[in-house]
């Protein structure tokens, strides 16, 4: 099999042949093997795998730009891609915002890789599912276990080329008890980090603690958001707030240099810490980028185009299709409060609070709500980042530092930046939990958060 | 090697490896999209994808494997791999899987297409978007955006039961939007809908939209919205335009009647449904004005096809009749478990994805009124249209939707414009309150329906008309 780097080089050479020496081209190639074993009603009901190589070509010729991609990587298929893109670019209007190509540079690292994860088959995933189902203790269980490997390369006509590879694994499941769902979710670049038995037990204990929920009136409540819920905050802040294109178009709340968040909030995008290739779609090397430091917004994520528009440099956040979607920090993490005490995993506790990190925050609450997960969140207005959504997989009333009762799900309508505004963050956990989106290149490093106020605008009855 | 032969080789390999059923789809797709902003082309994307996906049933376990290689050897390897994965599923096995018995279909089908969308010159397409967004910009939009998308998909399906089907589906659509940056918020107006209008048609659909003719209006309305009064908060009579009705149908009916959700197969992610199969045929879903059909045979609608991705021929079916829930969106495996005698709603978004229960065209049959009659019959209420945000719970009950624009309705007349209109409710309560329904139906196309793990993007259609609902909570905000 042709290596991704050889394939990228072959496409660059073809571009030179077809479009001439004046063409500027960047080529990204990726070979990915992705597999996912889904279970529901406590058995495996969907079990899939795929292996594919994808070539992406962005071509700038005579002041015009066009993009194409293909999974047909035979000699004929690649030539067709190049010829099609060259033909297309001649019909495009001038592109005065073309930012030029990434100059030849070296990059840090080659990606996080684990041989055992790369070699994992359906049997290994099924074994973790079996453990999850067994430790759910007879409760109905549903979820997935997935593994994947990517080998990618980038080359451009400026002579820049980079390569890297990474593995990934994730498990996400629920246990169901009397109408209540409890969940557990974890990601890593190593399958060995995922213990189906521990996750199944966590989901089960939360489900059992969620039965017979009471309905509370909507309103503003102090909350402890578990890492699974906090991941949703990170995702929406990333997509709509720290997106360089949204910022340039004044659709983002972000104002660099301004104290927009509580002083305890530091947000760092760090692709190198998780399962990701060490370069972006423009071949720019990835490195940790502090978007917020101690409450002060420092920057937003940029690719070469948005950076040029903003008068700055790329932060290594180009994504395929970025001309439309913008530059997005897809590996955003909330920095822990203090050092993590040398402990890599919070200790297990019993009841609905399944980790010591969250338990410490719950203990500080006089009256509030413990929220496990947020669901179907949608932005009402991107500039204020007011989001509506629902709680899911467990809500509990906290009274005097103790979980007092299970609560029915709420609808909320809340500005995310306001929820994290100066003075609004009352506590942050110490042990980041890595979480993924299915088959997506986005990973969030989340911690539990104690927030002064969350605006619940509807209950189970409407 | 011909596509049918490739698929046949994969199916035979899966059977040889122990499968008791197997099917394979060879798919080839070309995708083209262009976006423009403020009178300039922003992006042109042309993608090509081709491959084979093989589904195998070993014992009671399913397996699926996909590769982009259409050689005979790769197809045979994919079939064997699908069977190996299916065997591994047996390690955490459930009750025996079976498939609803159906005749093995053979045939060909093509969607209607008067103007091949990929043959229209890029310069012509670009001029259209540039002209429309330029006009919006000139009339006050801070950000004027336009987008068209084209999918040209050919697929060849073979099963171990004797299915042998090929289809050619061409889909096109486009839309424009105008955004005005206000003080701390943005306002947006779109045409013809928030995502554009899409159908299983050629470029003639885009031509019919006449984007440029609406470009100035949406910009002016977006600017007017910035200073318009907020939608009042409270309970009132709500009139929805047909575009927002399409989304209401999609989210609170279409997903709720998906049989895989009802059976719990999506419990951990997309969610379940508030519907219980024991209530099928008896449950009152909405008012007697509510007649919802599942109809993949509508010519040119986005959810139309000749056969679904299990080879079941397209057929029209009732989902809700005179307010009573009577039908589901089903596949052969889910139907067999549920004891239903129909399938036909299984699709995948590409060769690399497992076919799953998806909406086709799920729409509301026309009512007896017109929008003007509905407004004239309303003393006090709010009219809203064009979706801006959507959120619904995992049982498809508790929803909150935001629209781009609202208007006061007072004493039978449409009054002043309202900004940030939102409404919320519980599905069956809401549908039971529908007391007027227009006959002015549009088959809206939704090209971005997400479902499944790994995620799949479905193309669905939703015939919808303006309707009126009583005692609805509006004006929810953060």
TrEMBL record, chain A:
<dbReference type="InterPro" id="IPR036059">
    <property type="entry name" value="TldD/PmbA_sf"/>
</dbReference>
<feature type="domain" description="Metalloprotease TldD/E C-terminal">
    <location>
        <begin position="218"/>
        <end position="421"/>
    </location>
</feature>
<dbReference type="InterPro" id="IPR045569">
    <property type="entry name" value="Metalloprtase-TldD/E_C"/>
</dbReference>
<dbReference type="Pfam" id="PF19289">
    <property type="entry name" value="PmbA_TldD_3rd"/>
</dbReference>
<protein>
    <recommendedName>
        <fullName>Metalloprotease TldD/E C-terminal domain-containing protein</fullName>
    </recommendedName>
</protein>
<dbReference type="InterPro" id="IPR035068">
    <property type="entry name" value="TldD/PmbA_N"/>
</dbReference>
TrEMBL record, chain B:
<dbReference type="InterPro" id="IPR045570">
    <property type="entry name" value="Metalloprtase-TldD/E_cen_dom"/>
</dbReference>
<dbReference type="InterPro" id="IPR036059">
    <property type="entry name" value="TldD/PmbA_sf"/>
</dbReference>
<feature type="domain" description="Metalloprotease TldD/E N-terminal">
    <location>
        <begin position="22"/>
        <end position="86"/>
    </location>
</feature>
<dbReference type="Pfam" id="PF01523">
    <property type="entry name" value="PmbA_TldD_1st"/>
</dbReference>
<dbReference type="InterPro" id="IPR002510">
    <property type="entry name" value="Metalloprtase-TldD/E_N"/>
</dbReference>
<feature type="domain" description="Metalloprotease TldD/E C-terminal">
    <location>
        <begin position="234"/>
        <end position="450"/>
    </location>
</feature>
<keyword id="KW-0645">Protease</keyword>
<keyword id="KW-0378">Hydrolase</keyword>
<comment type="similarity">
    <text>Belongs to the peptidase U62 family.</text>
</comment>
<keyword id="KW-0482">Metalloprotease</keyword>
<dbReference type="Pfam" id="PF19290">
    <property type="entry name" value="PmbA_TldD_2nd"/>
</dbReference>
<dbReference type="InterPro" id="IPR045569">
    <property type="entry name" value="Metalloprtase-TldD/E_C"/>
</dbReference>
<dbReference type="InterPro" id="IPR051463">
    <property type="entry name" value="Peptidase_U62_metallo"/>
</dbReference>
<dbReference type="Pfam" id="PF19289">
    <property type="entry name" value="PmbA_TldD_3rd"/>
</dbReference>
<protein>
    <submittedName>
        <fullName>Peptidase C69</fullName>
    </submittedName>
</protein>
<feature type="domain" description="Metalloprotease TldD/E central">
    <location>
        <begin position="116"/>
        <end position="223"/>
    </location>
</feature>
<dbReference type="InterPro" id="IPR035068">
    <property type="entry name" value="TldD/PmbA_N"/>
</dbReference>
């Amino acid at each position: 099999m042709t290596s991704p780097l050889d394939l990228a080089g072959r496409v660059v050479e073809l571009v030179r042949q077809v479009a001439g020496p004046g063409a500027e081209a960047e080529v990204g190639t990726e070979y990915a093997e992705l597999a996912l074993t889904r279970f529901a009603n406590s058995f495996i009901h969907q079990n899939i795998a795929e292996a594919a190589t994808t070539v992406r070509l962005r071509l700038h010729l005579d002041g015009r730009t066009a993009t194409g991609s293909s999974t047909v990587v035979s000699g004929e298929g690649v030539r067709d891609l190049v010829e099609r893109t060259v033909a297309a670019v001649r019909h495009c209007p001038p592109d005065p915002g073309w930012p030029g190509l990434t100059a030849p540079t070296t990059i840090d690292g080659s990606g996080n890789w684990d041989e055992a994860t790369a070699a994992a088959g359906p049997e290994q995933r099924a074994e973790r599912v079996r453990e999850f189902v067994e430790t759910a203790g007879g409760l109905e269980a549903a979820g997935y276990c997935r593994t994947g490997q990517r080998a990618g390369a980038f080359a451009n006509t400026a002579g820049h080329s980079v390569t890297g590879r990474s593995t990934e694994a994730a498990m996400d499941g629920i246990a169901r008890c009397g109408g209540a769902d409890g969940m557990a979710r974890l990601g890593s670049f190593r399958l060995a980090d995922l213990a189906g038995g521990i996750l199944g037990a966590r989901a089960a204990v939360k489900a059992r603690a969620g039965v017979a929920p009471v309905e509370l009136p909507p309103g503003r409540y102090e909350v402890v958001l578990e890492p699974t819920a906090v991941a949703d905050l990170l995702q929406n802040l990333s997509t709509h707030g720290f997106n360089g294109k949204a910022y340039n178009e004044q659709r983002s709340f972000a104002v660099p240099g301004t104290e927009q968040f509580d002083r305890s909030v530091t947000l760092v995008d760090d692709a190198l810490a998780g399962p990701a290739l060490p370069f972006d779609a423009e071949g720019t090397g990835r490195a940790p980028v502090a978007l917020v430091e101690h409450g002060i917004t420092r920057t937003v994520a940029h690719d070469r185009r948005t950076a040029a528009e903003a008068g700055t440099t790329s932060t290594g956040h180009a994504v395929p299709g970025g001309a439309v979607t913008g530059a997005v920090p897809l590996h955003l993490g909330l920095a822990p409060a203090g050092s993590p005490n040398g402990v890599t995993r919070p200790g297990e506790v019993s009841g609905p609070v399944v980790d010591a990190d969250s338990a410490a925050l719950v203990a500080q609450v006089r009256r509030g709500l413990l929220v496990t997960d947020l669901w179907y969140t949608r932005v009402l207005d991107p500039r204020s980042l007011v989001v509506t959504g629902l709680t899911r997989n467990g809500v509990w009333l906290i009274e005097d530092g103790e979980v007092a009762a299970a609560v029915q799900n709420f609808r909320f309508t809340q500005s995310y930046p306001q929820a994290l505004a100066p003075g609004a963050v009352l506590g942050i956990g110490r042990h980041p939990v890595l979480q993924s989106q299915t088959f997506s290149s986005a990973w969030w490093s989340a911690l539990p958060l104690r927030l002064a106020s969350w605006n619940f605008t509807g209950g189970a009855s409407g | 090697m011909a596509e049918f032969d490739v698929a046949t080789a994969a199916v035979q390999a899966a059977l040889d490896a122990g499968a008791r059923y197997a099917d394979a789809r060879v798919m080839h797709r070309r995708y083209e999209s262009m976006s423009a902003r403020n009178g300039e082309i922003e992006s042109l994307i042309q993608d090509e994808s081709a491959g084979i996906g093989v589904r195998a049933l070993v014992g009671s376990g399913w397996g699926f494997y996909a590769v982009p290689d259409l050689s005979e050897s790769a197809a045979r390897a994919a079939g064997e791999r699908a069977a190996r994965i299916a065997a591994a599923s047996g390690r955490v096995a459930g009750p025996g899987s079976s498939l609803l018995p159906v005749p093995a279909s053979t045939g060909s089908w093509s969607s209607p297409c008067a103007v091949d969308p990929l043959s229209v010159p890029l310069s012509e397409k670009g001029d259209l978007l540039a002209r429309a967004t330029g006009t919006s910009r000139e009339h006050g939009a801070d950000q004027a955006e336009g987008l068209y998308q084209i999918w040209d998909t050919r697929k060849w399906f073979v099963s171990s039961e004797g299915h042998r089907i090929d289809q050619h589906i061409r889909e096109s659509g486009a839309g424009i939007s105008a955004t005005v940056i206000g003080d701390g918020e943005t306002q947006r107006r779109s045409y013809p809908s928030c995502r554009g209008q899409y159908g299983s048609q050629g470029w003639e659909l885009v031509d019919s939209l006449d984007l440029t003719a609406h470009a100035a209006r949406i910009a002016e309305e977006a600017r007017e919205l910035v200073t318009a009064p907020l939608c009042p908060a409270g309970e009132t009579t709500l009139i929805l335009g047909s575009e927002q009705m399409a989304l209401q149908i999609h989210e609170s009916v279409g997903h709720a009647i998906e049989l895989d959700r009802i059976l719990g197969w999506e419990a951990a992610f997309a969610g379940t449904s508030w519907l219980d199969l024991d209530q099928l045929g008896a449950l009152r879903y909405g008012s007697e004005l509510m007649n919802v059909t599942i109809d993949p045979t509508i010519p040119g609608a986005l959810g139309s096809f000749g056969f679904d991705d299990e080879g079941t021929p397209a057929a029209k079916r009732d989902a809700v009749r005179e307010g009573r829930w009577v039908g589901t969106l089903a596949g052969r495996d889910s139907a067999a478990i549920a004891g239903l005698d129909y399938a036909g709603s299984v699709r995948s978004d590409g060769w690399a994805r497992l076919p799953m229960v998806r909406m086709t065209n799920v729409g509301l049959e026309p009512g007896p009124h017109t929008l003007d009659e509905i407004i004239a019959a309303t003393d006090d209420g709010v009219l809203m249209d064009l979706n801006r945000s959507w959120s619904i719970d995992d049982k498809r009950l508790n929803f909150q939707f935001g629209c781009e624009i609202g208007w006061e309705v007072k004493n039978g007349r449409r009054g002043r414009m309202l900004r940030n209109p939102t409404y919320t409710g519980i599905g069956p309560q809401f549908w039971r309150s529908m007391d007027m329904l227009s006959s002015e139906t549009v088959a809206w196309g939704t090209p971005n329906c997400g479902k499944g793990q790994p995620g799949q993007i479905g193309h669905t259609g939703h015939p919808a008309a303006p309707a009126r609902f009583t005692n609805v909570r509006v004006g929810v905000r953060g």
